[in-house]
Amino acid sequence: MPAPHYHVAVIGLGAMGAATLYQLARRGVRAIGIDRFAPPHDQGSSHGDTRITRQAVGEGAAYVPLVIRSQQIWRELEAELDVSLFEQCGVLVMSSGEPAAPQHGIADFTRQTIALGKAYGIPHEVLNAEQIRGRFAQFAGLEDNAVGYFEPGGGYVKPERCIEAQLTLARQLGAETLTGAVVSQLQSDNGEVTISTNAQTVRASKVIVCAGMWSAELLGAPFDTLLTVCRQNLYWFRLAEPSIFPPNSPTFILAHGPGEDDNCYGFPPIAGEHSMKVACEQRAVATTPEAVNRQVSPAESDAMFSAHLAGKVGGVTSQVLKTAVCTYTLTPDYGFIIDQHPHLENVTVVSACSGHGFKHSAAIGEALAQQCVDGKSAIDLSAFSLRRFA
User: How many Å apart are CA 287 and CA 213, to the nearest integer?
Assistant: First the structure.
């Protein structure tokens, strides 16, 4: 039988892929989404219960319109499906110590965040150490020279629920999904792309690849040298009793020393869970999709508590209630790649997102669908071009 044909095929149905498939379906595009698992799942980069969202994105001005639009889309999805996707508890970005720890290649991430908040008119407060300690008892250990940026419009989104919501609506609107299918090859010819999988062969006029850590192997040069996969650990530490967390505590990002590894991020306690989720980012040790160690050792948990929580973030004990592992797929400058494949006609690449992609994903999906249907997107994506690596 001839391979089924679609106008657009989306490969990978994590954060970016689910958003893109939904937005294509909204526009009446005949589309299919393909994933090697059954999303939402815990094998990639789009899981872990909560992901920080913030409008003043210290990684760069090009991200600000994306996250603002994404937050609007989350609210639209919540209203349509009567689900909770976005918790607006605020976000607190802090630097404690001199010099401030660099993050995502930014020398002083907190002050860069403050500058972007001012430039875009994003409601926020700039707080000193005394003000932070007075409002948020969990940060009583901050050094006296600490500076903080508090954004009441930030908070966290729920990644698994966001993916499920968008895939549910995409299917209702006519999109198809092919799960449990591993894509082995993409071949462009005669203005179409043939997608070979272990389940079936699919043809499409356009393909959008959102394959995360599997992108380098699938896409070949130059992605096989540009992209690096790094394992990341997530921890849920038991709360101390009685709790010192104020009601409506914010998500937080804390740079607590001068080194690249002297930073962590975390979330407010969720009712009924008796724990706080916290993590840090490591970019020094690379891995592969096949070699990712999915188990977090007790030694890793102990090291996390000692290095990033003890004396710095209060209100939690050293007892770990839960752990998880995800991956970051990183570019050399920690920015996104959203561009046409240089060697495969009609193939758009969306990744790597370098560990800060989820909060932008809803708007990126919309922008990609606009490009497919209208020939251009409402939000400028040129900052994410491959040309910057030439």
Answer: 10
pLDDT, one tens digit per residue, over 30-84 is 999 999 999 999 999 999 999 999 999 999 999 999 999 999 999 999 999 999 9
Give the model's pLDDT for residue 102.
Answer: 77
What tokens does 295 get?
């188990």
**Residue 386: alpha-carbon gap to chain centroid:** 20
* Burial of 360: CB neighbours in 10 Å, binned 0-12, 13-18, 19+: buried
SS3 51: strand
Which DSSP string corresponds to 113-139?
A: HHHHHHHTT---EEEEHHHHHHH-GGG
Q: Are strands 31-35 and 5-11 parallel, antiparallel or unpaired?
A: parallel
Of 276, 373, 261, the closest CA to residue 307 belongs to 261
Whether the link from the prior residue into 342 is cis, omega within 30° of 0, is: no
Helix, strand or coil, per DSSP, at residue 263 = strand
pLDDT tens-place string over residues 85-130: 999 999 999 998 777 777 777 888 999 999 999 999 999 999 999 9
